[in-house]
Amino acid sequence: MMHTDLRLRKHADYQSVYGRSRKQHARQMAYFFAPREDADAAGPRVGLTVGKVMGKAHDRNRIKRRMRAAVQANAALLTMPVDVILHPRRTVLEVEFEKLKADVADVFRAVQRATVKARA
Length: 120
Description:
The radius of gyration is 14 Å and the shape is globular. The protein contains 3 helices and 4 strands, in the order αβββαβα. The chain is an alpha+beta fold. 26% of the residues are buried. The longest helix has 23 residues, at 97-119.
């Protein structure tokens, strides 16, 4: 389960990230990221979006459970105050979990590199 501190929760926060970033693509997902706006932001937050186009509720719930586990396993890779939104593809249902974790790790490393570079 993702820590509540690590989660992006409010609709306005999602809209803010969408407005300040561009869509990026990875093998199993698309993602958006933007530096956190609040000045006293302590760390990263991650949000998941799994729309109805991804299938029935049990499929969407399974995608969310797998993604949350992969995010939790790689949460330490994000240290900068950044908001990240992940849009998994339906292939997340069939891909091996180790490959999913590796893809999330690649996304987090790319976000971390870009955030550090933007702050320098």
